[in-house]
Amino acid sequence: MTTVRLPLFPLNSVLFPGLVLPLNIFEERYRAMMRDLLKTPEDEPRRFAVVAIRDGHEVAASGPGMPDQTAVPDRGPAAGFGDNPFLAFHEVGCIADAATIRERADGSFEVLATGTTRVRLLSVEASGAFLTAELEELPEEPGEEAGALAEGVLRAFRQYQKRLAGARERSLSTGADLPDEPAVVSYLVAAAAMLDIPAKQKLLQASDTASRLREELKLLRAETAIIRNLPSLPASDLTRGPTSLN
Q1: I need a labelling partner for 21 at 20 to 30 A (CA). Which of 50, 200, 233, 246 fits?
Q2: What angle (nearest 5°) sits at the alpha carbon of residue 84, between those of residues 66 and 63?
Q3: pLDDT tens digits for 83-142?
Q4: φ, ψ (nearest 5 deg) of residue 170
Q5: Using an 8 Å Cβ cutoff, are 134 and 122 in contact?
Q6: In the chain, at which residue ranges do the beta strands (DSSP E only) sit?
Q7: Angle between helices 197-204 and 209-229 (to 10 degrees)
Q8: How far is CA 134 from CA 1, 14, 30, 91, in A?
């Protein structure tokens, strides 16, 4: 078993290998993480692990709030994640490689990272300025019939895009050619589909590419049928995902 210890960045979203992650860093614990990553030579990867939050808050409270207006805000690397932060996170996450870490004049950071490798969370350490975790790297196995499944998923995804664009009375940006490598297809579709965190997390931790593609095929067909039968959709931008405030 190959393990590695890396800084841990919890988010209210799921990061997939190959996907770009923009971050706006303003909390001190994550500023400390970025300052530490900047010590890594530029010709080496500046890696940290991203995990989706199961139970907790991405941004720690910075002032008194409900129900106790006099309560002192929680501080420290595990703020917002309870007494045992390990239990606050989903088991499988993704390593991110920070291609750009830019410090602003106010000490906050603008970061652009890319997901690389899936990892399983083994333990969480909160004794330093920021959370770190021991992680097991997870290989991406193709599974059976991944190629044929990828073709079916791409067809279903195109249909899903058309239905989604019609529901919003606008066109989705589809200028770039979609990939045909099964694992890449599986991650791209998982990231692009309008699914909640539990559904995306299930896709991230699929046992192999073929299993992920099978699940995506079911989800895309179900979502497309729902969109087709809805007269309208909520007034939220369905074509864009949020950028983390952290």
Answers
A1: 233
A2: 25
A3: 899 999 999 999 999 999 999 999 999 999 999 999 999 999 999 999 999 999 999 999
A4: -155, 170
A5: yes
A6: 3-11, 20-25, 47-52, 92-103, 109-125, 132-137
A7: 150
A8: 12, 19, 18, 12
